[in-house]
Design brief:
Structural class: mainly beta
Shape: elongated
Radius of gyration: 24 Å
Number of domains: 2
Helix content: under 10%
Order of helices and strands: EEHEEEEHEEEEEEEHEEE
Distance between the termini: 12 Å
Largest sheet: 7 strands, antiparallel
Number of helices: 3
């Protein structure tokens, strides 16, 4: 079954990285590169777990007529790992066939990392966790009997079983120079909708989801970069507190102020947050769609 929805990224959004070898790097016009402004970035090769445990968001709710109903140690065991025997309810199973086990997710905290996240996520689709993979080994009973071939998390009764499909391997590019201050462009961009396991802060190796995909011409293996405008801090109830702090030294005759329409006005120059360059995070690449 094809899963539609989002491309999964290790870090996300907007504008391509400079994918050239560090030794062959040519500085863009108007720059004087340093190790801080153009650091060398090394991209790790995705592991098997990166590919098969990443999860996804689907615009269409997956059929859930086939599902886990228990295991050989039910009811004393409620979660099953690699090597365990599980029982499957539903139709269409065949002996020797493999099935991916997925789980429709809900955020029990209902906390919005950014204003409007809940609404954006509903528009994007239903998030799913990829829990593991099982192989049917016995069809003689009312329930199909399967063995867990691989587990990303504990497989639980009620988890959905869908036909397993191999995923495309993704080679990582070699070391590159990362342009931290690359100006914005009209290239394809999107927004991070959520992080895997509803994480609110992600780093290297973490998984997250965006609201763009193949409909915008994005394909597996494309690299994106994460950016954040300083204006985003103005909307954050915690980060915005720093703008209220004094900026200057006590000895300055004219003291600057940030966005006086929002904060206290001083007697010196006015600094607008919108004039600060966008902050760049690291490159990211697509894992699946």
């Amino acid at each position: 079954m094809k899963k539609t929805g989002l491309f999964l990224l290790l870090l996300a959004t907007a504008a391509w990285g400079q994918t050239v070898e560090p030794s062959a790097f040519q500085a863009p016009e108007g720059t004087s590169p340093t190790s801080n402004s153009f650091p060398i970035e090394r991209i790790p090769t995705p592991t098997y777990a990166d590919l098969y445990c990443a999860g996804f968001i689907s615009r269409q709710i997956l059929p859930d007529a086939n599902y886990i109903i228990g295991g050989i140690h039910t009811p004393t065991s409620t979660h099953f790992q690699r090597g365990d025997i599980v029982y499957l309810r539903g139709n269409g199973y065949t002996n020797g066939a493999e099935y991916e086990i997925v789980r429709a997710l809900r955020d029990t905290n209902e906390y919005e990392v950014f204003p409007g996240q809940g609404k954006l996520l509903k528009q994007t689709g239903q998030p799913y966790e990829e829990v593991g993979r099982v192989k049917v080994i016995d069809m003689r009973s009312k329930a199909a009997i399967a063995q867990v071939e691989y587990s990303c998390d504990g497989i639980a009764p009620g988890d959905t079983a869908i036909p397993f499909a191999e995923k495309q391997q993704i080679p990582a590019h070699g070391p590159v120079r990362f342009d931290r201050f690359l100006p914005g462009s009209n290239k394809v961009s999107g927004r991070i909708v959520m992080g895997k396991d509803f994480d609110s802060a992600m780093g290297t190796g973490h998984k997250l989801y965006m609201n763009i995909g193949s409909n915008q011409g994005v394909k597996i293996g494309d690299y994106f970069r994460a950016v954040r405008a300083y204006e985003a801090d103005l909307d954050d109830p915690v980060d915005s507190l720093s703008f209220r702090a004094a900026l200057a030294e006590d000895t300055q005759k004219k003291m600057p102020s940030f966005d006086p329409q929002l904060f206290e006005k001083e007697n010196g120059p006015v600094i607008h947050v919108r004039d600060l360059p966008r902050r760049r995070r690291r490159d990211c690449d697509h894992r699946r769609h």
